[in-house]
Specification:
By secondary structure, the protein is mainly α. It has 19 helices and nine strands. The protein has two domains: 152 residues, no CATH class; 242 residues, no CATH class. The strands form four sheets. The chain has a three-stranded antiparallel beta sheet with strand order 2-1-9. Strands 3-4 form a two-stranded antiparallel sheet. It has a two-stranded antiparallel ribbon with strand order 5-8. The N terminus and C terminus are likely disordered.
């Protein structure tokens, strides 16, 4: 059994499908991910993954930084009866399909010719419409049902199995996502799937032929040949009433009052903004957005000062640097020879923490003077292309097109050279994914 299969098997052990596996004593003694006696490590030891000897990884040491950064998660996962739950969870068809997929990817990567009928996905390149032809069908048939099971059966059963040890995690999930957080996760995943896999159809201006492409391919084409990071940052400064013009490649006014044009000399994203708009609209309603004081980033007629984001990211006790420290700790505990004692400011830090800290400082030069707004709840756009959603199929989310053909938008002005370094670019994207760890 390969490493990836073992990891997914361990993950599947979080998925209870029977009430018997979820029945626990609410006063049970809690254990954490830093505790070698946690039920999780008993389960992993059966897979030869959780020991501290020569034949296993010291997973408890590797995950100890997670216990420090996310104690509510550590206590719940560390206390759940993973072994008992997993024995029934592995019989779930959707999770079994995921395991078969992982085995297929391992076989493809190792070249042993065993692909379990799923194809050599691991050998795909980013040439052509691979998302529409291969990856999106795989997402629909295999990965999405697997995630649905994890959200609606796995995580709830884990919380039940942990009893009172999971009270803090339950409270955090409700604080971040609301009382029906399982369905919220399921919905957000489908929204994200539509951002990637919705199909845009338009008439080619030169040939007259109808072209179909997934939205992720459309985004790659629209942004890939232009000033990528400049476009991304200007999209993050788009008022709601300017969103339609912006996504059509017309000149629009940013929250900072600057005139800007997206997709210079490229085909505009057009109707592929529709699934992105719906995702951002749903995100704007999450309790965690209000808890993090970021409602102005979504509110109509308002915007969030970039310096506020920088201050949040630079907080030594905040989620960004805590997460970086956790990753450093995990690497140090498992591969100490890869971690140097880099110094950032007046504190000793690992390589990743030092790089993140440096990247935030560099990013501050770009964000300090701007006001951020992500366009959402936009209902007035008249697209030149039609859009077929991949996961949300109700009629209200089908957008009809007019008969205009799509053509690349000529640049309204000379594109300015991008001023973003690789380091600040990486940090900018990383910041988008760490908000959920904020207390």
């Amino acid at each position: 059994m390969g490493v990836f299969t073992l990891l997914v098997t361990a993950a599947c052990a979080f998925g209870a499908t029977t009430s018997a596996a979820a029945t626990v004593n609410s006063t049970k003694t809690c254990t954490t991910l830093a505790d070698k006696n946690a039920p999780l490590y008993t389960a992993l030891s059966l897979l030869n993954m959780g020991g501290s000897g020569d034949n296993g990884m010291a997973v408890d040491s590797m995950l100890a930084p997670v216990d420090a950064a996310l104690p509510w998660l550590s206590k719940c996962v560390g206390s759940g009866d993973i072994l008992a739950i997993g024995m029934t969870a592995l019989s779930d068809p959707s999770l079994s399909k995921c395991l078969n997929l992982v085995s297929s990817l391992e076989s493809s990567a190792s070249g042993d010719g065993k692909d379990e009928g799923l194809g050599s996905v691991a050998s795909l390149s980013l040439n052509g419409n691979i998302f529409g032809s291969s990856l999106c069908p795989l997402l629909s048939s295999t990965l999405m049902p697997c995630l649905d099971t994890i959200y609606t059966k796995t995580l709830p059963a884990l919380i039940i199995s942990g009893g009172s040890c999971c009270d803090d995690m339950q409270a955090k999930m409700e604080e971040f996502l609301g009382t029906e957080w399982e369905e919220v996760l399921k919905s957000l995943t489908r929204r994200t799937g539509d951002v990637v896999c919705a199909v845009k159809s338009y008439r080619n201006a030169s040939s007259g032929a109808t072209t179909n492409e997934t939205c992720v391919d459309a985004w790659i084409k629209a942004l890939g040949s232009g000033p990528f990071m400049d476009d991304i940052f200007k999209m993050a400064q788009t008022p709601n009433d300017q969103a339609c013009a912006a996504m059509e490649g017309e000149t629009f006014t940013t929250t900072s009052g600057e005139q800007y044009q997206l997709f210079k000399n490229q085909t505009p994203i057009d109707s592929c903004f529709a699934p992105m708009n719906l995702l951002l609209t749903d995100m704007s309603k999450l309790p965690m957005i209000a808890a993090m004081n970021m409602t102005d980033m979504f509110a109509d007629g308002k915007c969030l000062k970039g310096q506020s984001v920088i201050d949040w990211a630079k907080d030594p006790n905040g989620s960004v640097l805590q997460l970086a420290n956790s990753v450093d700790g995990m690497i140090k505990n498992t591969m100490p020879n890869l971690v140097s004692n880099a110094t950032s400011s007046n504190t000793s830090a690992g390589d990743i923490t030092a790089e993140v800290d440096s990247g935030i400082t560099e990013l501050e030069e770009e964000l300090a003077g701007v006001c951020l707004h992500l366009p959402n709840s936009v209902a007035s756009c008249k697209y030149k292309s039609s859009i077929q959603f991949a996961f949300f199929t109700d009629a209200s989310q089908q957008f009809a097109s007019n008969d205009n053909a799509e053509t690349p938008k000529a640049s309204a002005s000379t594109a300015s050279a991008s001023t973003f370094s690789v380091q600040s670019t990486i940090v900018a994207f990383a910041l988008a994914f760490v908000g959920i760890y904020e207390a």
